[in-house]
Design goal:
Chain lengths: ~450, ~850
């Protein structure tokens, strides 16, 4: 039998600690301060995104002032409705979304009705041939309105939300204008009217799509910011005991105990946030919806965070259990006449092995005990004897006594396995041990 | 480790251990107890010893016992235990504690609770450790001790736990003995020490064990000797004192939710608890039980559960209670003066006391108060009173008396050893053994022990006279005499006694009781009066009488008839004629009858005035022989008893032979014995002049000298009637100058006249059914006329002699003439005058 032994420790005993680790993630859903911060950020996002739209609205108002009397009121009503919709969109709530859809339905209905009335008016004119001049003027007015509308649409991100549709309508506008120039404009009245309404519809579509995209972006941003806040919150979190009560003064450094996986998660969230916050964000509404889905409470990021929490807490508990075991071993050896010389962590890292050096009071020599992690929550014990007089029977007896005491204290240690070699002086060099860098990750 | 944190009961040991002595013994009932230290932590003896030794400057403390063999405790552990987190508290015996100095894990020293019931544990490949493992081998332990004790740089104490077990079972005893002995011999100036823990209650027992030890004699003897040499027995661990119990209570209040409502009475309750001398763990269990039941802690609750007994210690300060003591002014003054102590010198003054007085005069009560006073003054640490009877210290077996006495002394350490009936120590070689054990302890432990001897005054004086060594230990100012309680105090005790039994008193009863008590007091024997004890008897007797009278109707109050009849004198005495009826048959005795009538009159007057007490007088019966002195004396006994002037209807007739002995000193004993026997009734000394007749060298004089003071002392309880012939009376009274004045009633028994003698003869005849014919009276008269002139004339005795003669002659006559009336005495039956 040599002076080095390894002793395995059954891992199944830490159930209680594992439960506590799981509990850690679930008991912290209430975070009013965090929600307040997130809301403030969202409001800032909203203001930032809405500002250019509002500036554009002034130009729009000026342009729509150039419309003929017959369409001006029609467009102004549509605008009022859009604004109403926008206020709901900004609230970014499911309820608002329903309201937006309702408003949209009403708007479309209203426009159809209006169009029908105007079309009727046109057909009446058609019937009265003698008033051709009048019809001709009306067609010219529609064409002018269509041009204003096309110009207006040109200021909108129509290529993003209704790609190609404006070009088609502009082609039709050119054709109709030509026809009206070549023949009596009165003959082009119907085409001009249709053209105008198609342009008007396009404007509405683009505006609504833009609003919907903005709303989705805002919502996605808020979800991201919420996730970020949660990550921040859990980065340093008080530990709970087995009864779910905070252990005073004990804080779980989540990034440390997950070997930096928290930072990875946070970087991911921040990258996405930056992307979404950029006005030129290329994501579609559907893509944005996916982001929202991913960050909704209980999904995606949050699950990942909970996993990290559970894992980090379990590892910290396990490290403490390892330390407790080291304490028990030291106490057991203390009863065998040993006194503590020093104890260190490999590389000064609590995640790594713990080393205790004890010296026999009556000068029989030193013992070094290493309690090393095994996997996330397991451990193994290594016992190195530096006896002045390496009497096998004393060693065996000492080990047996120590193991018996550990078992008495509820540490499920197995039987020692002899390593077959005497321990080297380096293994007892605590300075060296402390300088070792642990291979994190 | 601050000394204040050391548990109270081990502070003396801690102080003593600073001296650098090589051995200490620890013993006493407390060695099996739990302890509470100054910071309210609960400790076992090991931890408590550890703290005490750490405070004494030991840097390393090693425990050596059979079950754990060797345990090293770390002094720093104690310091940390005081930290507010208190995580280390109560985590078992606290062995080892090396870990307390480790750097801490990610969660510091927090202990993660692992799931002991979890499947992991069940599946653990942990075989049951073989028996005997889990501890060092004997040899390894001894090597360890040897190594540690050799080191002079780290001050080490080795505590040998349960020496008795080690001595018997340790596998390597020879090595242990050698180790200890060689260490004693070559300590090489190190300040290391061995602490030997014994499971014995007293040093005497430890000593006995040490003497009988075959394996470790030298070491043990040396340790015991060292302890004996220490003034204050630092190794004696007693039961918990008030301070420790108070801390325990507060601990249970916080931990177990023990309810306390009477905060003012708490110290009083604690005092009662401490007096029981129960171990701390017993109180802990009880307090938890109370807490679990939601009961409040107070004296009444503890009493109801039978956890405290004995008399209450009284409320208020000890000085207040002292001031309330009635009738004990001299005693009170001495005790109050204890408060103003002169500055203490290097030598502790002795405070042992002698209490003399009759039983029931409050000696025990005062002894308890003395304990409390010394406690209050800080002169004793516990102030408890160990009460023993002198005879209980004595044993028939050689050496046993010293052991018994030693045990009781150890029990009383820090308190008061109250030895009642101490005179029992006087009468044998065993008594001397007890005194020989007591005296040195009284001297050596005078700072921690107060011994009070109590008993009857003469006996105690005799004891002290015979043992000058003992006497010199009691400062004369602490010789306190307890007078008998006055009637008012006795009456209060009686009222309290009835109230305690829930018996109601009618006003008539109260009045009768007052009289009865007064009578009891007046009739008491000053040398043996039982005081409160006798009152208790009175109360018990009265209660029994009441119970017999009321039977089922137990709400009925006490009435005067329940009082013992001999004390009940509320009714008028029987009329003089009724009392005198037995004397009627006697001829003459006019002076006797006058004297009795006189007494009846006095008793009646005193009764009507409801005050004063008539005292039965000692009497001198003077007269020639045969004049009825003895007969009258017997009747007087009955009459005085019926008048209520004497407790008993008893007459002890004593002559010189009963009182006087042939050797020096014996007469007084015989006389005393007769007096004691007669007390309560009449001592009739016939032919009293014979006591004084022997002259100065005769022991008769001793009898008279013994008698005279007792006649005064027992006035009212004993009536001495001395009978003397007329011509001897002067010589008798001259034998002692006090004698004449003691006899306040002299009754002369004149010689009978002829007619009276005839009447006596007639009565004698009538009594036997004879008839004295008138013609026979004349020769009778003539016969008496001649006989009376003779020097040896015996009056009634002579008349009885004549009657016998007459009966003989009558018998002869009837024999000769069977037809004659055999009941009739005729003239011819009477002898002639002068024959």
């Amino acid at each position: 039998m040599s002076g080095s032994k390894t002793i395995s420790v059954d891992q199944g005993a830490w159930n209680r600690a594992q439960r506590s680790a799981r509990e850690l993630a679930t008991v912290r859903r209430e975070m009013p301060r965090m929600l307040k911060d997130v809301r403030r950020q969202s409001q800032a996002d909203t203001r930032r995104m809405i500002a250019p739209l509002e500036r554009r609205q002034n130009a729009t108002d000026h342009r729509l002032g150039r419309l003929s009397a017959q369409t001006r009121e029609f467009e102004q009503r549509t605008d009022a409705r859009l604004r109403e919709q926008a206020t709901h969109i900004r609230r970014v709530q499911e309820e608002s979304r329903r309201e937006v859809r309702r408003l949209d339905r009403e708007l479309r209905q209203e426009r159809l009705e209006r169009r029908r009335q105007i079309a009727e008016l046109g057909s009446q004119i058609n019937d009265i041939i003698v008033r051709r001049d009048q019809a001709s003027a009306l067609a010219q007015a529609f064409l002018a309105d269509a041009r204003v509308m096309a110009e207006e649409i040109g200021t909108l991100p129509h290529e993003r939300f209704a790609p190609g549709r404006l070009a088609v309508l502009e082609g039709r506008l050119a054709g109709t204008t030509e026809t009206a120039a070549q023949v009596d404009a009165a003959y082009a009245l119907s085409s001009a009217q249709d053209l105008y309404y198609d342009l008007s519809d396009l404007r509405l579509d683009v505006r609504q799509a833009e609003q919907e995209w903005l709303a989705a972006r805002l919502e996605a941003l808020e979800a991201l910011r919420r996730a970020d806040a949660r990550i921040e919150q859990f980065a340093k979190t008080p530990m709970l005991d087995e009864n779910g009560v905070e252990i005073p003064g004990v804080v779980l450094d989540l990034d440390f105990w997950t070997d930096g996986r928290l930072t990875t998660l946070r970087d991911e969230v921040r990258r996405e946030t930056e992307e979404l916050a950029d006005a030129g964000c290329p994501r579609s509404v559907e893509e944005l919806r996916e982001v929202i889905q991913k960050h909704a409470p209980g999904c995606g990021y949050e699950q990942r965070l909970d996993e990290l929490l559970e894992c980090g807490a379990a590892r910290m508990y396990a490290a403490q259990i390892r330390y407790n075991t080291a304490e028990k071993i030291a106490d057991a050896l203390g009863e065998e006449g040993y006194d503590l010389v020093e104890d260190v962590y490999e590389g000064g890292d609590h995640r790594a092995s713990h080393f205790t050096k004890l010296r026999h009071l009556a000068g029989e020599g030193d013992v070094v005990v290493e309690v090393a992690p095994e996997g996330n929550t397991g451990m193994s014990i290594k016992l190195l004897s530096y006896d002045r007089d390496p009497a096998q029977s004393r060693r065996a007896e000492r080990t047996a006594n120590m193991l018996a005491k550990l078992r008495d204290e509820g540490v499920p240690v197995g039987d020692p396995v002899d390593r077959g070699t005497e321990p080297t002086p380096e293994e007892a060099d605590f300075e060296l041990i402390q300088q070792k860098r642990r291979n994190v990750g | 480790m601050s000394a204040e944190l050391v548990t109270e009961r081990l502070r003396r040991l801690s102080r003593s251990a600073q001296t650098g002595a090589p051995t200490f013994v620890v013993y006493g009932v407390g060695t099996c107890d739990a302890f509470i230290d100054g910071a309210a932590h609960r400790l076992d003896l090991g931890q408590a010893l550890h703290d005490a030794l750490a405070a004494a400057g030991f840097q390393r403390i090693v425990f050596f016992s059979l079950d754990h063999m060797l345990t090293v405790r770390d002094p720093a552990a104690v310091l940390r235990r005081g930290e507010p987190t208190g995580q280390a508290e109560d985590t078992g015996s606290g062995r080892g504690r090396v870990s307390r100095r480790m750097s801490g894990g990610p969660m510091g020293h927090y202990q993660v609770r692992t799931d002991a019931e979890g499947p992991g544990r069940a599946a653990a490949p942990a075989p049951t450790p073989p028996a005997g493992s889990g501890r060092m081998t004997d040899k390894a332990a001894l090597d360890m001790i040897r190594g540690l004790m050799r080191q002079a740089d780290v001050r080490t104490a080795v505590v040998l736990e349960s020496i008795e077990l080690l001595e018997r079972w340790h596998g390597d005893l020879r090595d242990l003995a050698t180790l200890l002995d060689s260490w004693l011999a070559n300590r090489s100036g190190s300040a290391n020490a061995y602490v030997l823990v014994f499971n014995q209650d007293s040093l005497a027992e430890v000593e006995r064990f040490a003497e009988s030890s075959r394996n470790l004699p030298r070491m043990l003897a040396s340790a015991v000797r060292a302890e004996r040499g220490r003034d204050d027995r630092p190794g004696l661990i007693g039961p918990p004192l008030e301070a420790e119990l108070t801390t325990l209570i507060h601990r249970e209040r916080i931990r177990a939710g023990l309810r306390i409502e009477d905060w003012k009475g708490l110290s009083h309750t604690v005092k009662l608890m401490a007096r029981t001398r129960f171990p701390l763990y017993a109180w802990e269990t009880r307090l938890r039980h109370l807490a679990s039941q939601g009961a409040t802690l107070d004296a009444a609750t503890l009493r109801a559960r039978g956890w405290i007994s004995g008399p209450d210690v009284g409320t208020g300060t000890v000085w207040g209670r002292l001031a309330e003591l009635k009738g004990l002014e001299p005693v009170r003054e001495v005790l109050e003066n204890l408060r103003w102590q002169p500055p203490a010198g290097r030598e502790a003054p002795a405070r042992h006391m002698v209490f003399t007085g009759n039983p029931g005069t409050g000696k025990t009560t005062i002894a308890r108060l003395v304990g409390e006073i010394f406690l209050e003054l800080g002169l004793l640490r516990s102030g408890h009173v160990v009460e023993v009877l002198g005879p209980d210290l004595i044993s028939q077996y050689v050496g046993e008396t010293a052991l018994k006495t030693g045990q009781r002394i150890d029990e009383a350490m820090d308190g008061v050893l109250f030895i009642d009936e101490a005179y029992a120590l006087d009468n044998s070689s065993h008594g001397k053994e007890a005194i020989d054990t007591l005296v040195p302890r009284m001297e050596n432990d005078r700072g921690r022990l107060v011994v009070i001897l109590a008993g009857y005054r003469p006996d105690i004086h005799k004891l002290l006279e015979a043992n000058p060594g003992l006497r010199s230990r009691f400062p004369s100012r602490y010789h306190l005499h307890f007078p008998d309680h006055g009637p008012d105090v006795l009456l209060k005790i009686a009222h309290a006694g009835f109230a305690e039994r829930g018996l109601a008193e009618t006003p008539e009863f109260a009045e009768a009781l007052a009289k009865a008590v007064e009578r009891m007091y007046a009739h008491r024997d000053p040398e043996s009066f039982g005081n409160a004890r006798d009152i208790r008897e009175l109360v018990n007797g009265t209660g029994a009488e009441w119970a017999g009278r009321v039977r089922e109707d137990r709400e009925l109050p006490l009435t005067p008839e329940d009082l013992p009849s001999d004390l009940l004198r509320t009714t008028a005495p029987p009329p003089a004629e009724e009392l005198l009826a037995p004397l009627d048959a006697l001829i003459g005795l006019g002076a006797v009858k006058d004297a009795v009538r006189d007494l009846v009159g006095q008793v009646n007057l005193a009764r009507r005035r409801s005050c004063g007490e008539v005292v039965a007088p000692h009497m001198l019966f003077v007269g020639p022989p045969g004049t009825g002195k003895t007969t009258v004396a017997r009747e007087i006994g009955t009459i005085l008893h019926r008048l209520g002037l004497l407790g008993r209807d008893a007459v002890l007739e004593a002559s010189r032979e009963h009182l006087v002995a042939g050797y020096v000193g014996q007469t007084a004993i015989r006389t005393k014995k007769a007096i004691n026997e007669a007390t309560g009734g009449v001592l009739f000394i016939d032919e009293a002049y014979r006591l004084s007749r022997g002259g100065e060298r005769d022991f008769g004089q001793e009898a008279i000298d013994t008698l005279v003071p007792e006649m005064e002392n027992r006035r009212g309880r004993l009536v001495v009637i001395a009978a003397c012939y007329t011509e001897e009376i002067e010589a008798f009274l001259a034998a002692n100058p006090g004698l004449a004045s003691r006899f306040t009633l002299r009754i002369d028994f004149p010689p009978y006249k002829v007619e009276e003698l005839v009447a006596i003869l007639r009565n004698l005849a009538t009594a036997e059914g004879f008839r004295l014919t008138p013609e026979a009276e004349e020769p009778v008269r003539a016969w008496f006329a001649v006989a009376r002139e003779q020097a040896d004339f015996g009056n009634a005795r002579t008349a009885r002699g004549l009657f016998g003669e007459i009966k003989k002659r009558l018998a002869a006559r009837v024999e000769a003439d069977p037809a004659a009336d055999h009941d009739e005495i005729r003239g011819e039956d009477v002898p002639h005058a002068g024959t």
